[in-house]
Amino acid sequence: MEIIFSTIAFVVLFSILVAVHELGHLIIARCTGTSVEIFSIGYGPAIYERLDKHGTKWRFSLIPLGGYIKMLGDSDITSVKEHIPNGVSEEDMQKMSIHRKKPWQKILVSVGGPLANLLFAIIVIFSLAMIKGIPIYTNAVNVVSEDSLAYISGIRNGDKIVKANDKPIETFNEIRDAIKQNIGKKISIELQTGDLTKNIDIKMYNDEKTPISSLGVTPSKTTYKKTTPKEALLNSFVTTYVIAFENVKAIMQVICGKRSTQDMAGVISIFKIASSSAESGLFSFIWMLATLSIILGAGNLLPIPVLDGGAIFISMIEWIIGRPINKKLIDVIFFIGLVIVSALMLIGIWSDLSKIKFFKTILSMVNM
After folding, report:
1. Which backbone phi and psi does 18 adopt, to 5 degrees?
2. Confidence (pLDDT) at 244
3. How far, in Å, CA of 228 to CA of 297, rounded?
4. Of the candidates 288, 312, 317, which has an alpha carbon nearest to the alpha carbon of residue 300?
5. Is residue 275 part of a domain?
6. Is residue 103 domain-resident?
7. pLDDT per position as a tens digit, 10-37
8. The CATH number of the domain where 143 resides is what?
9. Does residue 102 fall inside a structural domain?
C-alpha cells in the first residue's frame, strides 16, 4: 500500500506541475494568435480527450510522466520543425502557426511556461502564509539519510546546531547560510543533544577535494508567525527568488565542475520527496509543490536548447539578425541541448542510485 500511495503522490504532484507549466504556454500562445492543437497531461495514447471551441484537444494520456502542448505547425511535440497539416491553408499558417510568428512573440510563448510555474509558486506561498503564517525554522534538525554527511559526522534527528565556527545559530536559515559560506572548507559545529553539547569538525569536501554543498539536514521544528497580506506577499516573492537563484546556481556549478554531482537529485529523489511530503500532511505537500514549481520554472529558463530558455535564446538571435536561423544549424543546436539535458538527467539518476545501499554495495564490489 505504501508504494501505491507514494506513486499516486508522485503522479499527482508531477501532473500539477506540468499542467501549470503547459497552461502558461497555452495562454500566451492564444494571446499571440497561435493555434494550439493538443494540450496533454502525460505521453502516449490518449485515455481521455475533449475538444474545446478553440479547436484544442485536451487529453490525459497513458504515461503520466510529463506533458506537452502541440501548436499549429509543429511537426512533433518538440516544436523544432514546421509541418503544414493537410487541409490547412497558407493563409491560416501565416496567422496561426507558431513558426510564422515574430521572434518577440515566440519569446513570449516560451516564457509563458516558466512564468506560470513561478507565479503559481508565489500564489501558493502567499496563500499558505495567510492561512497558517510565515514558517520560522528553528536550529533543530533532522538527518536526510544515513548516507548523508550529517549522519556520518555524528548528527542525529532532533539535535540542535547552536554554533557554526563560533557564531551563534538560532534558525535553520542561519545553518543554511553557514554551510553555504563554508563549501569546500572545514566547518566547526557545536551540537546540542538534549542537555549535552559537543563540538564536531566537518569537511565540506570529499576525498578528491571536490566541494560538498549539502550537509544533509532538514528543519526538525517549525513555528509559524502570523502575518499581514503585505508581509506575506513580500515573503512569497523573496522565497521564490531565493529558491530559484540557489537552484540555478547549483545546476551551473555542476555543469562547470565546481560542485559535486552527488548534489544532483533525479526522479528517484523527487519520488521520495513527493511521498514524504504527502505523508507529512496536506500543508507539507502543497509547500513542496510550490518549491518544485519554482525549480521547474527557473531551471527551464536556462539557455540550453530543448529547454524554454534555449528557445528564448534562439528567438533572440533571430530577432537580432533579422532572419530565421538555418534549419540544419537548429537541428545541431537542438541535438547538443538534448545531450546536455539527458546527461544532467542521467547524473541525477546515478546520484540517486549511488545513495541506495544495494547499489553502493555493488559499486564497492566493482571497485575492489
Report:
1. -70, -40
2. 92
3. 27
4. 312
5. yes
6. no
7. 888 889 999 999 999 999 999 998 888 8
8. 2.30.42.10
9. no
Reported in sequence order, the residue ranges of the chain that DSSP labels E, i.e. its strands, are: 36-51, 57-71, 134-137, 141-143, 160-164, 167-168, 186-193, 196-203, 217-219, 222-225
**Residue 18 exposed, middle or buried by CB count within 10 Å (0-12, 13-18, 19+):** buried
The answer to whether 11 touches 64, Cβ cutoff 8 Å, is yes
Residue 354: band (very low, low, confident or very high) from pLDDT cuts 50, 70, 90: low
Distance of alpha carbon 250 from alpha carbon 261, whole angstroms:
10
Close Cβ partners of 124 (under 8 Å, ≥ 6 residues apart): 286, 287, 289, 290, 293
173-198: per-residue pLDDT in tens?
888 888 888 888 888 888 888 888 88
Domain membership of residue 163 as a residue range? 135-225
**Residue carrying the nine cell digits 500532511:** 281
- Most confident range (mean pLDDT) of 80-84, 95-99, 100-104, 279-283 is 100-104
